[in-house]
């Protein structure tokens, strides 16, 4: 009996199917004829179960063999690379570059020969090859990070998933920190700002504070990088710096008392600097004083409140007097 059961593994799929049908026929309770002995019935049932197991094993082995063969298929490899490149931005530039070079090789050796007369395809492959040859240079890599930020950050933001938004923004900021090109500093500041916004939405002010602090440092670099550059752009960076300084102050005020006490002086300094920037910004361009009056009023009011909490009545009175004069100017 054991020898017969072991011999099943040598049967082909056709023989297994034929044998299985025979077992099912013999075990059919509705068949006519003499009733089989119990031992025979048990053996037939055991043989049927063994045949089914062997049938499934052979099917699984055939699937695994086909999958191993498919993994050597260039088209399968191309699809695998596309799947990799659609993943999160946690991959290093070296990993992305390696996959891009392999993708170009596969496209050039597999896809291009299928349509040898297609000049557009040849031109696209040539451009792609040039990009791959110089990858990872900072400008191309920053464009990749920009695209992934727009896609992944926007996707999670629309669904209100601030935790995943924070993760994407932090990863993007880390990539932007690796760049040395000054023109890319605004993108680092933007990623830090987005990360801080997500942290604030999650009520994680302890996470938001250092992100805003770093963003302040980046904006100061942008203001100082070319003081004689485009005045409009410098002015925009100054306003963004002022807004980030005020946000930093608000985040510090929301920290637990034992933490807030450590950063209160920094918060007050940030608020004073923001007020100074807003005071200058009001005279910029043809928009008139009203453009940043509301933001200046809010910053002065914050300074009044913080100075009073600190016990500095003199500074609180000065800020309150400035606030009163500003409001009077608006009603003139």
Question: How would you sum up this structure in a few lines?
Answer:
This protein is mainly α.
Protein architecture, described:
Helices cover 79% and strands 0% of the residues. It is built from 14 helices and no strands. With 332 residues, it is an all-alpha fold. α5 (93-111) runs antiparallel to α6 (119-134), α7 packs antiparallel against α8 (162-177) and α11 runs antiparallel to α12 (257-281).
Oligomer classification: single chain
Helix fraction bin: over 70%
Identify the overall geometry: elongated
Q: Report the end-to-end length measured between terminal Cα atoms.
A: 109 Å
Strand content: under 5%
Rg (CA only): 35 Å
The SSE order reads: HHHHHHHHHHHHHH
Structural class of the helix and strand makeup?
mainly alpha
Q: Helix segment count?
A: 14
Number of strands: 0
Largest sheet: none
> Can you give the mean pLDDT?
78
Which parts are unreliable, with pLDDT below 50 for 5 consecutive residues or more?
Answer: none
